[in-house]
Amino acid sequence: MKLRLMTYNVHRCVGTDRKLDVERVAEVIAAENPDVVALQELDVRRARTKGVDQAHRLAELLKMKSHFHPAMAVEEELYGDALLTALPETKVKADGLPLFPAIPGLEPRGAVWISVEVGGVPVQIINTHLGLVPQEQKRQAAALLGEKWLASPAWITPGVLLGDFNATPYSATYRLLRAALHDAQAPTPTWRRPPTATFPSQFPFMRIDHVFVTKGLRTLDVRSPFDARSRLASDHLPLVVDLEVTAAGDAAAA
Asked: The whole model's pTM is what?
């Protein structure tokens, strides 16, 4: 059983050419034909992006169902992350992540969790977008590994934690997550290709978008489209990972 995932920071669908184009972002996603799409930096009913519900519109264009979590709300205007899929799915949870009170005014962060059916096997998928400050990132990563998320009884392997972590493989945040989960791009006896960078889209050299997996999932392929449309659509490139679902697992096990 195979599962194709995409994580994509869409930069509120404003490209590197400063053009707002939701349809172009949908075209980038559709070209890769993912089963599940994790999106970050979506605007919903915000004046700056013409009041469009970007989560709903992208789901509509892709013929998928969307689960959106507003990490930030200003009256009717929302901003956050979403999981889109056409697979049988159930929303498990959507919630905020800890702030770093030592620095007031930081952008709120959150995560959204769904369970999808892949050949009869439920696969847990959590999409997140961590903060920019290292101490903030570590608090948020620790929360995701804690009892409200990956240590919850509802977290039954196989599972995936993916998104924009704003953390390179040299960071303490990445090491914290890597100690509990497997980086889908890390070398294994069956996967030895060098990792793929996704930021910035015009000249990608940073690896801050990640896909972490538990046991029961094996990497088959990793790629990042680098065509002209993908380089323009956002300041990030999408990261696409093909996984094989090898087995159902146990509660709270990585």
From this structure: 0.96
